[in-house]
Amino acid sequence: MKSRPVQRFSRARIQIITMDIEQFRMRGKEMVEYICEFMSNIHNRRVTPDVGPGYLRPLLPSEAPQEPESWEDIMRDVESKIMPGVSEKNNHSSFPKKKTIDRYLQITHWQHPRFHAYFPAGNSFPSILGDMLSDAIGCIGFSWAASPACTELETIVCDWFGKAIGLPTDFLYFNPGSKGGGVIQGSASECILVCMLAARAQAIARLKESPAHAHLDETALLGKLMAYCSRESHSCVEKDAMICFVKLRILEPDDKSVLRGETLRQAIEADAAEGYIPFFVSTTLGTTACCSFDNLREIGPVCKKYSGVWLHVDAAYAGNSFICPELKYLMAGIEHADSFNTNTNKFLLTNFDCSCLWVRDRFKLTGALVVDPLYLQHTHADTAIDYRHWSIPLSRRFRSLKLWFVMRSYGISGLQAYIRNHVQLAKRFEALVRKDARFELCNEVVLGLVCFRAKGTDKLNQKLLSTINDSGKLHMVPARVNQRFTIRFALAAPNATASDVG
Ligand SMILES: *Cc1c(COP(=O)(O)O)cnc(C)c1O
């Protein structure tokens, strides 16, 4: 048997191969240049990929390189194996390509002007720069002491944004006597999860106090808890209920895809009669399929009546639009909510991840999530926020920086103009659908989402959508609205214009 070769490390060699600050200065400028070219020429790329699963494996070595590779080689592979969707004649990239692999078209280009799938993936230059700085600061802001600015800016920016969209003042942190406050999470799924956990902890604690249940342990009580949402709620609510190990009753919305108070009331009463304990209702403002709005004015009083039912409002997409005074009516009934979330990384020009959550009573949140080992404690714990008690992970990025950059660079007026542009363009697309006798409209167009279908069978529409997506020129995804297959046209490009809509 051969003996293993002895590894020798030379200090000089390691210094040569590491990117030093001067190289970073150069590569950083090149990268900004690359990003600018990518952004200016993205319309020349295909919007959808045309590769199948597993395309990348044969193109890359099966093991990480033993020896350092040159930056040029890495970037060449980015351009030839990761980014494509560009034809040779339109290739403006500054990086030379290897001859072999330019036929593959590998990325779905979310920032493409003809990307109309899902909801927008927020993006803007101030936000990118904010994230760059956050990466460089590289702090892990789990407690106030771990990085005071990281914590304090987050609280302040959440208050700014909460005020701008018109949340009840109870949700703000800097408000005399307030128990509320905002926090930035990684996703709407996490926002809903932490609220469900808080509601669960509160419900269990309350049950343990009641003579009828005091003898039961937590696991027995858990089996009695019932959460509610609408069929139009995002699938993450179902996942969150799975994680929380609670039952979830999925309710039927009305024919406009709106969850109504009476439906909830009947379900709660029927469940209570069977011994279940209703504890959490997740509503949606701006549903993912068709951007419908649950009726909070009706649902709020139902939750109040069954005291202790936590009312959550998931406005991942639409919540951002409430920054426009003329759209605030969409949040009517918000005064009944215990918690509210919106993703600025969807509809407010901020890059993923930046999901804002506000709660009316932060002590209910921390009551469910505080674990406090000695090594994380600090002397200001009584007077400062420790955001680790507001979320699942311990470590957290300096996310508020990019939102702060965005809010200051655009100003409220710029953000309003951005939202209004998307709304107007959606209305324009809606008008085109209405004018064309071959198509029908399938949702009420309120923000930047139009659901439509060709008059005819679901099959015809499926075929239409796959033809659109296979062309590589446009990208849309389907949704089931009122039991029918429809095509979703979402405004996504930050600077979309009338010519992008047709
Ligand atoms: C997009 C979306 C979500 C999921 O958001 P994540 O941040 O990806 O978890 C939840 N709810 C609604 C209404 C959404 O549109």
Automatic annotation (TrEMBL):
Keywords: Decarboxylase, Lyase, Pyridoxal phosphate. Its cofactor is pyridoxal 5'-phosphate. Pfam families: Pyridoxal_deC (PF00282). One of its GO terms (molecular function) is carboxy-lyase activity. PROSITE patterns: DDC_GAD_HDC_YDC. The modification N6-(pyridoxal phosphate)lysine is found at K346. It comes from Frieseomelitta varia. GO terms for biological process: amino acid metabolic process; carboxylic acid metabolic process. Belongs to the group II decarboxylase family. It comes from the Eukaryota. InterPro entries: Aromatic_deC, PyrdxlP-dep_de-COase, PyrdxlP-dep_Trfase, PyrdxlP-dep_Trfase_major, PyrdxlP-dep_Trfase_small, Pyridoxal-P_BS. PANTHER family: GROUP II PYRIDOXAL-5-PHOSPHATE DECARBOXYLASE, MIP05841P. This is Aromatic-L-amino-acid decarboxylase. GO terms for cellular component: cytoplasm.
